[in-house]
Amino acid sequence: MHYPLPSLKLLTVLLLSLILWAPGVFAKPGAANANLQIKMLAPTSRQDALDRTIANLLSQHHYRQSPLDDALSSLVLNAYLDSLDFSRSYFLASDIARFEPYRTTLDDAVKEGDLQPAYAIFNTYLRRLAERTAYVQSLLKQEFRFDIDES
Q1: Count: domains in the chain
Q2: Which of 21, 109, 118, 151 is the most buried (most CB within 10 A)?
């Protein structure tokens, strides 16, 4: 059976999404439950250097040599937001509006080894997750009422 190679755009979007998704791998499970005390993550110098290396490899050594540009940056931002909040349950409209400047600057940040945008988005996600968890826990502490119509 013959499997066609994925397009360069798809491959690049997946690789850059992986780079941006990486902060989630290092988060401690349950950290958001501890009375809203969440540890904000920050990129390390090693991750910054790796980011620059991957950007260089993608732009110069891939057989198509597709540039990391604003169009790709927009695709990567969409993929990253979808990977964190696919059900549109955590990010607020104000959060998405705050992330909008990254739509055309993620490519530049990746080239410079600046992972701050990815971490800013992920830390917002952690904060919203902690808020939602605290809200659910507060609802569970209340007594259930089956005599009222909430529909």
Answers
A1: 1
A2: 118
